[in-house]
Every structure is written in C-alpha cells, then in structure tokens.
Predict the structure.
Amino acid sequence: MSAIQMRKLKELFLRKDKQDPGDEDPGNIYVYKSEEELSTIIVTTLGVNHDFLEEIIVTTKRKLPGKSDRLIYLTDNSDFTIFRRHRVIFEYLPPLVEQRLHAADMPWQAYLRERWGLLLAKWRPRRVLAYGTTIDSFLAAAPTASRPQGTGHAQIMRLDILFVADVRFEGGTSTALAVEIRAAARTGVKTGLLAVKGPLLRHPYPMHPDLRALLDGGATERIDPDTKVDADLVLVHHPAIMSNRFTRRTGIRTERLVMVLHHPMVDRRGKLQYDLARIVSNCHWAFGVKVWLAPVSTVVRDALPRHLPAGAELLPENWTNLIDLDDWPRRPDGPPHNPAVIGRHARPDKLKWPSRAADALRIYPADAARYSIRILGGGPFLSELYGPLPANWEILPFAWAGIPGFLQGLDFYVYYHNDSWSEAFGRTILEALAVGLVTILPEHFQPLFGDAAVYAAPRDVERVIGKFIADAEAYARQSALAREFVARHHSVELFPQRLERLFNISKPRDAAAVRASMIQPLPIRQVLFASSNGIGMGHLAQQMAVAQRLPRGLKPVFATMSYAMKIATDEGYHAHFLTHHRGIDAAPEDWNDVLAEELFDLISHLRPAVFAYDATAVFDGVVAALAMDPNLFSIWVRRPMWRESHRLFLEMADAFDAVIEPGELAGEFDHGPTSEVRDKALLVPPVLLLEPSQRLDRAAARNFLEIPDGMTVVALQLGSGSNFDMRGVRNGVLKALLDRPDTLVLDIRSPIRADFESDEPVGRRHRIVELFPSFRYSRAFDAAVVAPGYNTFHENILGAVPTLFVPNESDEMDLQLNRARWAELGGLGLLMRRDHDLPHVDRFIEQLLDPSEREGMAARCDAIPWTNGADVIANYIEDHARIVRTDWDITKDS
C-alpha cells in the first residue's frame, strides 16, 4: 500500500461521524434470537476503495470488538474475496453506479431505506462505525423513484380480435385456436393473444408449440395484461379458464365478448363440469359486456340449460372446429395393408379410453396376423386399465409434431372413450377424417360427423373393418367421403365468412394505422432469479444461462446467496446478495424468519413478474415470502441426481407454481427422489451457459492462454474444496502430469474456493488460473481432470473434451459418482475415485493422454444429440411473465 493510501486509510479510521443505530423498534426479526448476550457492531465500508478494505478489516478486528461482540461489515463491493479470506460476516448493498444503471427497476431509495432498517433489526448492533460514505449519505444519494413500468405504453392498441386462452392446453382447444389465429392473419384481420393460467392444468405445461410459433412469426401479438387494448371482438377459448375472477385488472375494452364452449356443461352421467352462471359473471367482471355463448357442437349446445344466466345469450350457430387441409395431406390411394393398420391418437388420459378391457380388445384386436395397432398418446396408464397389453399394440408417446405423418400410415382410425366422458367435438377425429381415413366411432358421434364416419358397437368393430378390407371400392368411397365432409363443413376457409356473418368483421383496418398501433413494445417486466449458495457456482451460472436468453422486455435481476455474485454484476446484471445461515453462524429457524422478510422486501419493491428459484434446498423463508404474494408466478428449477437425504425438500414443490428439471445425460443412472415425481415437473434438456459452438476456436483460445506450441494442455478443475478435500487428488494428478515433459497443466481455481492459503505453482508447466466461464477456452485443452458437477460434466461431455472425472462424494452433493460411471461405461470419459483409486493415478493419466483413447472419447461425445434447456426455460418464463391468473380464487384470499 502506498503512503498516500495509508494516510487516507488513517483519515477514514479517525473520522468522528460514527453513527448510532437509532431507537427504531427492531421487532422480532433478529438473526440471533436463539443466542444469549450476543452483541454486534456494524462496520460500513460503502464507497471505500477496494485497496483499503484489507487494512480496515485487520484494524477493526484488532481494535473494536469486545469479548461478546461480533463484527458485521456492510459493503457495496461485489468482490467478496477479502471478507471471506478474513472469515468475517458481511452484508451487501448495490453501489450507487449500479443503482443508477438500473434506476428504472425499482424505487431504490425507498428500498434501501427499508433494507437498512431491516439490517438494523436483523443484527441489533450496539454501534455503527462508518468508513467511506456514511449510510445516511448513501441512502440520500440513491435514485428516488423508478419510472412507471407503463411509461410510453399509454397508446391504445386497436385489434379486430383479441383471443383469450390458456395457451398450455395440449389438445384440441389449442389446436383449434391456432387455426383461427392463422386464418385471421391470412385475411389481414389483426389479432392479439392474452394468456391465462386457468385452474384445470396443474402440471407445468409449456405453451402449445403451434401458438408459440404464431407469436414468434408475428401472426398475432402477445398481449401484456397492462397493455391498453380496444378490440372489436374478444374470443375466450374454453369456459374453465373463467372459473375464477381475474386476479388483476386489465386494460381491455370491447363491445362484444364470445365464450367458446369447448366442453359440455354436464358429462354423459349428468355430473356438472363447470358452473355456467359463475363463468358468465366472471366474464362480465373482466370485460364489462354481455357474454355470447358459442358451443363447439350440438353435444355442448344440448347440455346447456334452457334458461341461461343473466347477461348471457346463445349464438345462433355452433363454433365448430376448423382445420387447414393443406396441413393434412390425404392418405395415399390404395387398399388397406396386410395386416391392416388400426390406430388412434389423443393426449394420454384414461378418460379417452374404453372403460372395459373386453371392449378395448374388441376395438383394437390382438390378432397380430391380421392387425397392427398403432397408438399415439399411450402410456403406463393403459396397463393399469387393461393389464398386460397385446404384443401387436405399438405404443408411442404423445407428441404435437408429426401427427399428419402418423395418420397417413394408418388404414383405419378407431376411437372410443370412457363411458363417463363427453367428447365435446373430437378434434382428433376431424384430423383423421381430413387425411381420408376410414373412421369407426361409437354411435353418439353420428350427429357430429354424419356419413363421414362409420358407427358401430365395440363388438361389431372387427366385422366392419373386415367389410372394408374385402371391398376396396367401398374403402375408397368412404375415404373420399371423409375428406369431402371436412372440406365442406370444417375448412379454415370458412373462418372469414363466420366473422363477417356473425360480427360484421370483414375488412382489415387501414394498413398504416394498424401498423402504427401494432408496433408498441411490451412493458418491461422484471424476472427475479434467486439461488442458494451451494459450494460452487453452478446454480448462479445456470440462471445466467437462462437470463441471457430472455427476450427484450424481460429484465433479469439476481438475488443470490452465492459468493460468486460478482460474475453476474460483471456482466452488467442487477444483483443482490443474501446471507446464508452457515455464513453468519445463525440458527436456521432465526435465519429463515429474516430471509422471508428480506425476500419479501425485495419482491415488494421490485414487483417481478416471475420468481425463478434455482437450488436443491428450499428454505422456509423462501416459502414464506412467496406465500405473501400469491399472484407472483414462481418456478423452482431443481437438478436431478439427488441423494436420499434431500428427499424432504420434495414436499416444498407445492409452494411453487411450476417445477422445472434440467435434463441429465446420465439420467438412466438417476434413481434418486426426484425420479419418482418427474411426472409433476417440466423436463428440459441439459442446460449450459455457453453452447459448444460459442467457444473460442483452438488457436484463439491457446493464444489467449499463451500456450506454447507443441504442448499438451490438461485442465485441472476439482472444485472449491468446501466440503470434500481434493488436495491429495490434486497433488497426485499434478505429479503424474508434470512427469511428462510435453504437458502443461492449467489448474483452474474456483473464485469462491474455501482454501485461501497462498498456493504457488509447482513448476513452470503448472499454471494456477481463475477462468470463468472456463468452457469458453476449452478447445485449447487436450484433456481435463475435473469433478463432475452438473455444469462441468455436461460442458466437457457436450464439448467433447476427453476427461478423467473425479467425483465429489460428499453427502451434501448430488450423485456425481453416477454421472462419472455413466460416462466411463459409455466410453465418454474415465472415472477415478479419491478414496479408491488414488494409488493408481499414474495409470489413469496414461490412459487419459493416450491419443487413440482421447480420439475415441471425443468422437463418442460429439455424436450425442443435444439442444440447450436454457432456451426452453427462457421461453417458459417469457410465456408466464405476461399472464392473467384464474387458477386460484381471489375472492377467498385473506
């Protein structure tokens, strides 16, 4: 430290404006509630040059605390290394430059004043000592208020049609909606889509891909609930989404509202499916106009009461499903195959299948010599319904894509469902008819499809099929009837006529005016990414992978317990640090009470649209904070490969609106607790911060790292060492590598490693470096020795880096050993265990550096297909950041 710096430091220390914590009532939020006679001193270092921090910590530790005092440092420097090196407790406030950079995100001054008050309550200091900027001056300098999120968006968006729908529906509702949007776009009708999270779907389904493609392609506009919209017509698709009141007000005005009834009000056994009066009332509260009811079929119309609820009227015609025949090419001409191919497709649901096993076997015969049965949308539930399934039943998982090709491969489409189920229309049947399949149905479908289908009792299905197999001309006639019926009654070309006939919507508005009204950017919404500390950087890095893929208009903000928060602030992100109970030696119960207040305080000022939490452990404080804002859409991103000891956290899933599980290449080796509840999570491919193609090429990476020509480079990356001592492994590996004169070792250290002792290279070919993300430079590596944490494992496999995996087998960690075993058995990597294999380290290194071994590993890794799950999660967040919720009853919220 220079003489000038030392003089400034002394001036700082001798300042007389040492502050008193004041007389504020701290309430019951105290992080050491369970402790007796523990006092604290807060030392603020706001605005202090990084070079002074070391001396401040040393001096205050030596001069200030009494025997029962604990020092708490308050910093605005996101590099926590000095505080951690001295093993002192610290808190963080974002610096003024960050506040100004993100001034529009929140009312900073109000937040920071409350944050300071909370810190006083949390620590109850007997004294506050100021270095640098005093806390009063720091708070006074903060931006006073954020700009309103709606600034610049007061202009009214004028639409011909606003579609309102739960865009997550898998089946016919979403498909029918997509057809209408596409038809409107073709005719120049201007539309928007407001997404609703209704009460029917509890699984965290993503947006239907057809609807997302239409939004991405500009066929319709994504509508934010705060956007002011003037629509000639509002079309609400499916009554269930209005079972509850909107949980927020919208800016939508319209003169005409149509509720498309995609489901009967009562089923075939007379059981009520929805409360029509309640739905009409909720529509009126949301839009303020009369509700026109539009049944999709006579089945739905006939189930309506004779006297409709007040404020509702019935459209004079049914809102029948439409289909674009260009998307459904006709089945190739010719007679049925031998054996005949019988099939069906539907979302996997027991109600979509016959009630009795005997009927199912009559409809889909087990005689493999005569029939091949193909089922798209099957699953384990079929065995639960019917017992062992016939060998000639080919079960395919439900899929949105490829259905026309599936249908073209059939000869007969046969569809029967549960006795209690009322099929409102039968979108899948319409698709089969469009392809020209001979379609066999139960008799009650006759009013919907007329002579386009053939009707039979289950016992007669095989006889009907036999008749068409024997008579090729009859088969051809029936196939033609099916296609002609669809063209006549359900073609997408009929949609403009329907709009003109019922609502006089015929011509698009003035093109220039429409264009001006449609180019308004969406209001900015914050997404709050919260993560636990972990022992590495994986949770935070995974969140950054998602954050950098969010679209414009969604602003990522981080609240993390990770000491590596600086990697987020260095990328320009708005970030907050939350202490973990281990880092402050607090009882978990006391700490959770404080955490709940800290998170809620941040949420209430930031007003995020989505809360995305990435961790294995879900703390009670997180759950409590979320419970205080039920309208905030919350996501828990949890990785697989859990140990049994983590099972208790599974019950926390109910605190979130959605659970997302990033994929695991070694998934077949995962039999941990999360494997039992995957049916309740959205499964996405493995997540990487950087994709393999985004890395520097080999020459550029080696040039950056200053690698001499001709050297074999091995990356050594064994983690932070916080909970599993890898020093013996590091020493053994280093010796084995450096015994080879052409080998250079890049010893990549974690920025948050636990061991702060000075560590010198053991030779000229041993370099100790901090690289983040190290994967960016991995094309420079010839091989690697790493701990197979989630991120590093998937980076090295998908980046085709020949790797020796040394798992961290701490009980706190995920099952790294299972990942490494999967790689070893597949020839994708090597496995060495610390407590089993260290004496044989020379043999492992020799195998790793064998050119043919490395070439084989790299080739096998290169062949693995992969897409980045970060894109899927980013899309999911985008689709839930601008929703209206009706999935809970706001009238009952206390």
About this structure: The CA atoms of residues 735 and 842 lie 9 Å apart. The longest helix spans residues 588-606. The first strand starts at residue 39 and ends at 44.
